[in-house]
Amino acid sequence: MATLGRVTVPSPFDRTEPHVGVVHFGPGAFHRAHQAAYIDTVLADDPRWGIAAVSMRTRRTVEALAAQDGLYTLAIRDTESSMRVIGAHREFLGPEDAARIHALLADPSVELVTSTVTEKGYCLAGDGTLDANHADIVHDLAGTDTPRSLIGWLVAGLGARKAAGTAPFVPMPCDNLASNGAKLHAALVAFARMRDAALADWIAGEVRVPSTMVDSITPASDAALYDDVEATIGLRDEAAVQREFFAQWVIQDIGQPLGPDLGGAGATITDDVGGYEKAKLRILNGAHSTLAYAGLLRGATSVADAMRDDALAGFVDAMIVRDIVPMLPSVRGLDIDA
Questions:
Q1: For 146-172, what is each residue's pLDDT tens digit?
Q2: Pairwise CA distance, residues 137 & 228, whole Å
């Protein structure tokens, strides 16, 4: 469906200029519905920050999006849904593109390396430190031009930066793992320590890894979505993704530029990511769990069904207002009552 490239992209940046300033590992639906949409907004004013997306396990996503010139539809679900063509990606790379991935990570023009690889993708043990016995870590520590782990790729890229005497990129984990920045930074240092003590010291002293919190419900793509997109834009887009209207990206202030102006695109830059995490876990996850358990007892088959139950919806609302919100810590910049 390469003809999707003829659909008007609702941002005026020039896609013929293949600037890459961000590398992203794990271009699944959440990344394409969330981080890519923020960066797509940035690109309207600053074309330097195109994304090169790396799929470490499969070429399925790579091939689907390459056939569409890297473009895809984002359906934003609300009372009235809207659709937006995302054009933030410049390249989609797979396991067979190791040389290109190494080149990008070594390129000083790439300033930000983000990841959505799930909690397991960071190869951490139960205590949150690097699992040196993880099969992918063992493989990467043995020395290879084709790492299997995110940790292996990041350390390889940072090693290239150190060797060239250039500034490190900013690694930014975007999976919902508490203190994800601190845990990733410690894992990078630990991995490097097992191969090159000087590199480990350099990463420990020079590399800043912000913790983040991300939020936007992203239902799985299905035939109903593809049919809806086709009816709206006139083209079949089986790489389309969908999410709720609400989106949040909270990023720790590390005292240096991240590269793209994510704050200007709507992200929250703060020194208290943990406060936002607590609010999300207690309000959103608490409400969802209550709706699920109580909803089942009252015969509901989905959260949507449970929310149509006035008594249950009222109970959850009261729980949030009376029991959860008063117990949350005050967080600068976060209006809980809103």
A1: 999 999 999 999 999 999 999 999 999
A2: 42
Q: How far apart are CA 309 and CA 304, in angstroms?
A: 9
Q: Are 188 and 151 in contact (CB under 8 A)?
A: yes
- Give φ, ψ of 288 to 5 degrees: -60, -45
C-alpha to C-alpha distance for 238 and 72, rounded to whole angstroms: 8
CA distances from 34 to 49, 121, 206, 240, 290 (A): 15, 19, 28, 13, 26
| pLDDT at residue 61 greater than cutoff 90 | no
Half-sphere CA count of 253, side-chain side, radius 13 A: 7
From CA 259, how far away is CA 206, in angstroms rounded? 16
Burial classification of residue 311, based on how many CB atoms lie within 10 Å of its CB (0-12 exposed, 13-18 middle, 19 or more buried) = exposed
pLDDT tens for 273-316 read 998 888 888 998 899 999 999 999 999 998 889 999 999 999 99
What does each C-alpha distance from 216 to 35, 63, 131, 161, 245 come to in angstroms?
10, 26, 30, 34, 8
Q: What's the CA gap between 297 and 287, in Å, rounded?
A: 15
